[in-house]
Amino acid sequence: MSYDRDSVTPVAPGLRxxxxxxDTGKPCFLSTHGAPGPLARIADxxxxxxxxxxxxxxxxxxxxxxxxxxGEYAVRHALRAATQCLGDVLRIADSRGARLPRLVDTDxxxxxxxxxxxxxxxxxxxxxxxG
Length: 131
Prior knowledge:
Strands 1-2 form a two-stranded antiparallel ribbon. It is mostly helical. It contains three helices and two strands. It has helices at 38-66, 72-98, 120-126; strands spanning 15-21, 27-31.
């Protein structure tokens, strides 16, 4: 299974992108209507497993890269595992990101600046959020 975020249709509101594909390689979606059910819990468990596996693969890939004696096979194997995990993590990020509430600009000027007159990005930089 590999995740190509360019080929996946943007997730419609109310749908969850699941961490698996259909038999034909198409993305699977779940409509939960705001109430988590058994299938959503299974998806949560699979995502947690994928994130745990990704952390393990990252450590292994770092070890292969740090070992100057690693051969081509080891490097290819580590890269293959890392790209698979990266695809899983991107799918999880897209799924979770699509379920975040959308921020609405409530002031009348139509910009995304803070009401105190400072720009959100500027205040985060000043606070060290982008360090």
